[in-house]
Amino acid sequence: MHTDKIDLLLATEVALFFERNPFTVENGEGVARKLGRHTEQVLQALELLVERCVLTRDENGTLFAYAPPYIAEDR
Amino acid sequence: MQRLSTGITGFDNLIAGGFPAGSIIALRGAPGTGKTTAGLQFLKAGAEQAGEAGLYITFEELPEQLYADAAELGWDLKALEQRQLLRVLSTSPEVFLDALQDPYSFLMRVAKPVRRIVIDSVTLFEHIRSDDDLRGQLYRLRSALKRLGLTAVLIEERDPHDEVTTLAFLADGVINVSFEEKATGHRIREVEVLKLRGSSIATGRHLFRIGHGGISVYPALTTHDILPLDGPFIATAIPKLDALLGGGIPLGATVLLDANSRADYRVLAAAILTPFLQQRHGLALAVGPSTFPAAQQQRLVKRLAIDFERLAAEQRLCLVDDSRVELPDWVEPSVIRLANMLDADHHAATQQFIRTRREHADDPGWVWFRDLNAVIAVHGEDYLWRYFVEQQGLCQAQGVTALCLVNGSEVKPTLLAKLQRGATVVLKTWVDGRYQYFEVLKSPTGRVSEPFLLQYSTDAPFVDLR
Questions:
Q1: Which of B32, B120, B168, B357 could potentially form a cystine with B155 if both were Cys, beta carbons 3.0 to 4.6 Å apart?
Q2: CA torsion B407→B411→B413→B418, rounded to 10°?
């Protein structure tokens, strides 16, 4: 329960980061560095946000980008 | 060659209208010097003035901070993003470099096709873990940007006073921005274009300011059109100098010629003085043990066909002797002896000398070659501090044009400033290494010059500015 709570909080933080910086294209390590968080935890949050279609990821599965409806049609 | 306006007021004038399309520009500077603002202004200009999409790549600064900073300048970057004219893209150096090389890049799909790009900053490429060294990575970056046909500004976090970096060699252009502390203690921002392939550039440092609306550059050399002088003047033998002065030397003007000890001032002085003689002005000449009668024998005087005996016969020669020089008999009627006088007496005699130059209103006037170094040697700097402005004011009233020689590096800065204030025209020549330089520091038109290379030639006027 405790871990789930951290995941959700961190996922919210990551989602807000992408909302405020919508043209971010980063790997997990880069996002973690920009948030000042541990890479492994941020990677879990990124996975969660991809599952929820908040983020997209590249074919190699290493880069993440924001997928909000208003710019989805731009891609 | 197509050029892309930078959108920075005054800056395009320094670089022949803008960056050449497809060029790669290194923008170097220490923190806080305005590199990011300059980069964003370049993209904003492309978007708003030419409808060219731009991409700002930021590795450390978050886009949200850039949006906020830009808003302080009155720029709405998000609005440009919504119009597909701008992307402020946050990523890592290694991700970006990899993306540039990948034909199916995920990042470049997000970035959209653009014409202009700013990368902030390539200094972080130093930390990429790669088999390539920094030069290899920068070369790879350069090749990719060239392949894509982008006009790129690569920001480099460097003190411009540091050594030349690899990027400076690879880039088509190099621009330094810096804080400089002035003599008065205040700090100003300055920009200097060191290199721009295929473009003539205005060299030297130019002041710039950041305010609402962005950066404005104020070129150090005023670029307004030169209005011709209102009053009478005599052209020198150097057309480039005349162009800066608005035609030539105004009659009655005081021209300060600041020459360091290694610089040969004689040819320059001759190029200014001889046209006065051709216009039948009288010549007043400071004489010392080494200047006259030896002056008669100088090759330069002979080549300029200055005939002292004829000038003396026509009462158009006056030798001002401050040091009891032995002179030939024929010249004695033309000599004014001012040696061994107390300062006040010397000043009174000098005033008398100036007042008696022009006996009739229709006399063409006199030109006085004044050696201020000799005056200082005999009377000290205080003499000039007290009397120079008064004496030169009298010269102006009497139509006596004065060319005053001084070695500015050997007088107190306060005296030099006073001499410059009292002069209508201030010229400076100096030797640095194996070259002699020349510049106009003050002119009646308000125009000053960049340092010219002073080159001697075998044909009159024996000197040229390049």
A1: B120
A2: -80
Model confidence at A72, pLDDT cuts 50, 70, 90, reads very low
What's the one-letter identity of residue B240?
K
- Which CATH architecture group holds A3-66? Orthogonal Bundle (1.10)
Cβ atoms of B346 and B358 within 8 Å: the answer is no
Q: Tell how many helices (H) and how many strands (E) occur in chain B.
A: 16, 23
CA distance linking residue B223 with residue B202, whole number of Å: 11
Chain A residues touching B62 at Cβ < 8 A: 20-21, 34
Average pLDDT over every residue of A28-34: 94
- Measuring CA to CA, which residue among B112, B73, B119, B113 is closest to residue B93? B119
Sketch the domain layout of chain A as residue ranges. Answer: 3-66
Interface predicted TM-score (ipTM) of this complex, two decimals: 0.81
Gap between the Cα atoms of B123 and B166, Å rounded: 11
- A24 and B CB contact within 8 Å: yes
Question: What are B155-169's pLDDT values in tens digits?
Answer: 999 887 777 788 888
Asked if the C-beta of A25 comes within 8 angstroms of chain B's C-beta atoms, the answer is yes
How confident is the model at residue A29, as a pLDDT? 94
Q: Which of A16, A17, A25 should one mutate to test binding to chain B, selecting the residue with the greatest count of B CBs within 10 A?
A: A25
Q: Choosing among A21, A26, A70, which should be mutated to test the B contact, i.e. which has the most B CBs within 10 A? A: A21
What is the DSSP annotation of B362-425? Answer: TS--EEEEEEHHHHHHHH-HHHHHHHHHHHHHHHHHHTEEEEEEE-GGGS-HHHHHHHHHH-SE
- Touching check for A2 and chain B: CB below 8 Å? no
Residues of A in contact with B89 (CB under 8 A): 23-25
Let me know: does B466 contact B437? Beta carbons within 8 Å: no
Contact criterion met (CB < 8 Å) for B104 and A59: yes
CA B240 – CA B464 distance, rounded (Å)? 8
pLDDT single digits (tens) B216-237 = 998 876 544 555 667 788 899 8
Q: Whole-number mean pLDDT of chain B?
A: 86
